[in-house]
Amino acid sequence: MEAYFDNSATTKALDSVRDIMVKTLTEDFGNPSAKHTKGMEAENYIRQAAADIAKTLKVKDKEILFTSGGTESNNMALIGTALANQRAGKNIISTRIEHASVYQPLAFLESLGFEVTYLHVDHNGHISLEELEQSIRPDTILVSVMYVNNEIGAIEPIDEIARLVHGKNPKIVFHVDAIQAYGKLVIRPKKQGIDLLSVSGHKIHGPKGIGFLYIDEKVKIRPLIYGGGQQKDMRSGTENVPGIAGLGVAAKEMYTDHSAKMEYLTGLKDYLIDRASELEGVTVNSLKGAEGAPQIVSLSFEGVRSEVLLHALEEKGIYVSSGSACSSNKKLPVSPVLKEIGLKKDLLDSTVRFSFCENTTKEELEYCLQQLKELLVVLRRYSRH
């Protein structure tokens, strides 16, 4: 049996995504900037995808900017906004549990003279609204907080953060990295007070190499890529039409029968948490039910290194993750997220993430739990010698 539990790293593309990509690669392959019919056909795919995505968020089509993925969306949100608004101030607020695609742009901005305040989180991975309130200064121009943490599935109180930030200063731009949240949670940027929202295609059964950034029409932001002036001068370069078309289809599909799908995922998550808790020496780092993301379970296994367990499970056809799969340096440092939530020191290197999608079955979980039960006995005995 094969069981793929690494859907937060990437997902299998839908058949409908593959089909529209093949069509735009081989039939409707025109350059969307071209003035002839082939070009207009290609441009229609872009318009359709923007409309379909905007509908899932209840925003305007023109507020969707296509990018090469989550990393570029985060880079543009942070660097583009900071550079466009630096006259108003140079203070940015973020958290200590962000993805590298937020940390690294922030480090770059610090090298340019911006000052970044990093908020702590509690043992569940949630920021303190009090600490946020105390951190906002007259020169704060941008606040960036992830919606769902990619390692433990913690959901940040986005609505409360937006109210607090904009209540203090309506001109502060609020950016949300929603790469693990979009498709799983119902997101309404206008209603929630989100100014910028980053999304990646391959986390929602779409293609790799495509994503989008929702930019509220009121936000002042600068492009990162200059050239032919595509996407209203905001991101030059010939648009990735197959990727964009595939992303549009995936977005529409994710929000079809959405609540039933998420109820199913939450059921799987809660089942794994309950059953894993019965195993000896297991610590659960994710919250059950609606308090945590429906697709992520982080478990720590006492006395077993995560890398060893990962490969032992792999031999049984079970695919999981240790740390963030988007950090490609193979010698992974200790997770700052696990450190920040106060996980016991001896468990930092013993933590594995299981992440599901709508195709995950209970049978696969049963198989995984059975293998875990047998493997843990052997691996712990082995690690003691």
Short recap of the structure:
This protein is of the alpha/beta class.
State the strand order across the main sheet.
2-8-7-6-5-3-4
Largest sheet: 7 strands, mixed
CATH topology of the largest domain: Aspartate Aminotransferase, domain 2
CATH architecture of the largest domain: 3-Layer(aba) Sandwich
How far apart are the first and last residues' alpha carbons, in Å? 31 Å
Describe the structure.
With 385 residues, this protein is an alpha/beta fold. It folds into two domains: 3-11 and 257-384, Aspartate Aminotransferase, domain 1 (Alpha-Beta Complex), CATH 3.90.1150.10; 15-254, Type I PLP-dependent aspartate aminotransferase-like (Major domain) (Aspartate Aminotransferase, domain 2, 3-Layer(aba) Sandwich), CATH 3.40.640. It contains twelve helices and twelve strands. It has helices at 15-26, 37-57, 70-85, 100-111, 129-135, 158-168, 189-192, 241-254, 258-277, 306-315, 336-340, 362-384; strands at residues 3-4, 64-67, 91-95, 115-119, 140-146, 173-177, 196-200, 211-215, 282-284, 296-301, 318-319, 351-355. It has a seven-stranded mixed β-sheet, with helices on both faces. A three-stranded antiparallel β-sheet has the order 9-10-12. The chain starts with a strand and ends with a helix. The mean pLDDT is 96.
